[in-house]
Design brief:
With about 575 residues, the protein is an alpha+beta fold. The protein is built from 21 helices and ten strands. The protein is rod-shaped. The protein starts with a helix and ends in a 27-residue tail after the last helix.
Length: about 575
């Protein structure tokens, strides 16, 4: 691209046309379609004064008014040796404006009109002739050719301007499409966050705020728990709200209740309440789940050159609302499936615990303590939840151990003890083909390993034992020592904690043993008390069953108190 071409990019065709006329020594005017002067000649000094004289102004204006009235806009001779070259801007067969060039021949400088113009502008005729001799060089034959050249130049410049406009428009549309695709890609990448829909909504608001020219983006959801699920009643936003959060949330809820149908809603001023500051527009895009309106994505206080909500804005917001609808539908379904699955799992583990009144609620308590210890150890809430599930199913393998062994009130034989020791492997075998339990399996298989390497089933030691198993092993022993069993009464809390300290480095991970001392046990005590009451009621119905018997582990066992609770 040449320097001249580079300089012309983005500049109106009529501006470039007037510049070309100036290089040819042709003064120009710019007139509106109604015949009013938009821009007089740019020439200065004597020449400029002559061109702006009342005489010349009237002559030019009379010619322009004729073209406005419908006369053909062609080369026009104002007076001998002076011609006007009309160059109308035409769009869809309608004249939008005129660029008017003046061409002068030497004889124009001797005409009566020239002298009249000099007189009306108080100019010395001879001095003015001297100033004009450099541009008064046309003749009757060349002026027609110059007029043709200027019309062709105008057509070329207008074609270039249209091309630049279309290129700019295409570029802008490509940019908008890219931003839309980038937004959809980012949202699509987050569509697997079914267990964290709040995170997805926050991300969507942030992404929209980044690509759209709105001071704030928000999302408000109804209190419909069935369809909105985890985001029910929530208000999310990104950017600078026009009022305090609670006021904006309340206003957004009010606007949400007033939404009807599936179309976007654009409000302004009082209709938008506190969200419509300074009468600026607020746009709402509905979010549905299973055909039910559950929320809306909102945007307000648009800034930049165009304060009005545009079609590209609506496309972006609509795309996000569509993705949000799909995700929330899937999240609600996932939540229901999870609740059903966990309910089934809890019922299964409770049924195993219920085989013996003394182990009633054991898995629930271990799950609670495992989660609490994981958090005390510095793990994330997500990791703690997975460890809670591991604690819930850690003893599921006991379903494969005969009830006569599980509930035996006296000492176990060596053979019976070996049967008990199989339950981690049985549980691992039961759960190993369920994909969602992949990260839980180590806790099920290794929760009876010991830190000193004397546990089972694989005699792992130290940090070779998975962290999830070390956590469950400690809280499993704590619960066993804290609850009544057929073969002994519950140990005192002080004694239990002392056993944990004593077992650090032998049975338990020393750091976990230290962290456990920080765990709040109030919820555990509530669960334990509830389970003991249930056990007492059950025992009262079967009063022939002894409540406290002798040692559980087989004769000759040298296991520490926590470790010999194999039936826990």
């Amino acid at each position: 691209m040449t320097d001249a071409a580079a300089q012309s990019v983005g500049r109106p065709a009529h501006v470039q046309l007037r510049e070309r006329c100036a290089r040819l020594g042709l003064p120009t005017w710019r007139y509106s379609a109604g015949g009013h002067v938009i821009a007089p000649p740019a020439e200065q000094g004597v020449v400029g004064a002559l061109l702006r004289s009342r005489t010349i102004e009237l002559l030019v204006e009379r010619a322009v008014q004729g073209w406005v009235a419908g006369q053909e806009a062609t080369l026009t001779e104002l007076f001998p040796g002076c011609w006007l070259i009309p160059l109308p801007d035409v769009h869809r067969r309608r004249r939008r404006a005129y660029t008017v060039a003046m061409a002068l021949a030497p004889e124009a400088l001797q005409s009566e009109q020239f002298l009249a113009a000099c007189q009306s502008a108080s100019l010395d005729a001879e001095a003015t002739r001297s100033a004009l001799r450099g541009i008064a060089v046309m003749d009757g034959r060349t002026v027609g050719r110059v007029a043709d050249l200027l019309r062709w130049a105008q057509e070329d410049l207008q074609a270039m301007a249209r091309g630049e406009h279309e290129t700019g428009l295409m570029s802008r549309r490509l940019g908008e499409s890219y931003e839309e695709l980038a937004l959809l890609y980012k949202l699509g990448q987050s569509m697997n966050q079914l267990d964290h829909p709040q995170r997805f909504v926050r991300s969507a608001c942030a992404e929209l705020h980044e690509v759209l020219a709105f001071r704030w983006i928000a999302a408000r959801f109804s209190g419909d728990m069935r369809h909105a699920g985890a985001v029910a009643g929530e208000f999310f936003f990104h950017g600078e709200l026009p009022a305090p959060v609670d006021q904006c949330s309340a206003e957004a809820e009010k606007l949400l209740r007033g939404m009807l149908g599936t179309d976007p809603v654009i409000l302004a001023g009082e209709a938008a309440g506190v969200l419509g500051r300074d009468s600026m527009q607020v746009v709402l895009l509905p979010v549905f789940s299973e055909g039910i309106l559950i929320g809306a994505i909102m945007a307000g206080q648009k800034f930049g050159d165009d304060p009005e909500v545009t079609s590209p804005d609506l496309k972006m917001l609509g795309a996000a609302a569509g993705h949000l609808s799909v995700l929330l539908e899937n999240a609600a379904l996932y939540e229901r499936q999870q609740a059903m699955f966990m309910g089934t799992l809890e019922a299964l583990t409770a049924s195993i615990d219920a085989k013996d009144p003394y182990t009633c609620g054991h898995s629930e308590r271990v799950a609670h303590l495992a989660s609490s210890l994981a958090l005390a150890h510095g793990l994330s809430a997500e990791q703690a939840e997975r460890i809670r599930i591991a604690g819930l199913v850690h003893d599921i393998g006991k379903i494969g151990v005969p009830e006569s062994v599980l509930c035996k009130p006296g000492k176990l034989t060596s053979e019976e003890f070996e049967q008990i020791k199989l339950h981690p492997e049985i549980g691992h075998h039961i759960l190993r083909d369920i994909p969602m339990f992949d990260d839980v399996l180590p806790g099920v298989l290794h929760h009876h390993e010991r830190f000193d390497g004397t546990g089972y089933p694989e005699r792992l030691a130290g940090e070779a034992i998975p962290l999830i198993a070390r956590i469950i092993g400690l809280v499993d022993a704590f619960d066993a020592m804290s609850s009544n069993r057929t073969y002994r009464r519950a140990m005192d809390r002080t004694q239990v904690l002392e056993e944990i300290r004593r077992g650090a480095g032998l049975q338990f991970d020393p750091q976990l043993a230290e962290d456990f001392m920080k765990v709040d046990l109030s919820k555990f005590d509530e669960l334990l008390a509830r389970a003991q009451q249930a056990a007492e009621r059950k025992l009262n119905r079967f009063s022939h069953r002894p409540s406290v018997l002798g040692e559980r582990a087989p004769a000759g066992s040298d296991a520490a108190p926590g470790a010999r609770e194999e039936a826990a």
